# Entry
Amino acid sequence: MLRSFLIYLSKATWAQRLVTSWKFAWRAASRFVAGSSVQDAIQVVKDLNAKGINVTADHLGEATTTPDEAVKATQDILDLLDQIHASNVRANVSVKLSQIGLALDEGLCEKNLEQILTRARQYQNFVRIDMEDTPYTDKTIGMYERMRHKGFDNTGLVIQSYLYRTQKDTQVLLAEGTRFRLVKGAYKEPATLAFPKKADVDANFDCLTKIMIDGALAKGAQPLSSDGRIPPIPAIGSHDEKRLAYARTYAQQVGLPNQALEFQMLYGIRRDLQDKYVKEGIPVRVYVPYGTHWYPYFMRRLAERPANAWFFISNFFRK
# Structure
């Protein structure tokens, strides 16, 4: 019930205006968001790199409402790629297609994404296309396929284990060597499209992990690039120790080298696990969001972890 309500609030304009007006809300959000500027993000990347952790940086924003906003968001992402290159940090970028115009005009989105991938290729860097809620699933996969057909091999996708369709999507996309980030999914979806029970989501997560690891072996177990920017085929995005343990155990059983597998976690969550796996020789990448459009991202993080939500609510009454 709480999770559904928080996901609803993440998309409610009235709630965004209200919450972002509270000074303490940003203090709470800053646990999960690196800051408002690209300079803030680069400093966090440097700090994480110093601990042996790679990064995917995300300039926050989604569902832009005008072409000008989509073009501005695209320029912000290009600036991020420039800063990563200039700073020589171990980081790539993540992009939401609704941020660069997918909901407005697919042609505009395609043009903007091609600009981003071209800049990333110039710097020998990588762009992860994030998966949003189901109205965008087919369009997102279709846009990814268009970029691959245009010769861009420096991009990959996020897949969500709570969707029934994901196993089939994964098997199809593996054939062309797609580099995946596997997550459980953070949106509210109907039972006709997504597993309603956590146990089923977890079981599908492990099944998809196995499929991805087998696919990575079939493609030659391509390792993480030496500069930390180009990820291997399977990236397991989770803070669930059981899911991570399953991935590691299965990879060891079938002989997938450590460097051909990556664990991905969110900035500000389970730092103990991040440090643990770095020490054990598993590549770890942290998703580092930044920017002024932090509200939807923050609300989804609260929805994922009720303890975070109650911490936020208790602060409201003490503000």
Remarks:
- The two ends are 25 Å apart (CA to CA).
- Residues 162 and 197 are 9 Å apart (CA to CA).
- The domain at 59-311 is CATH 3.20.20.220 (TIM Barrel).
- The first strand starts at residue 54 and ends at 59.
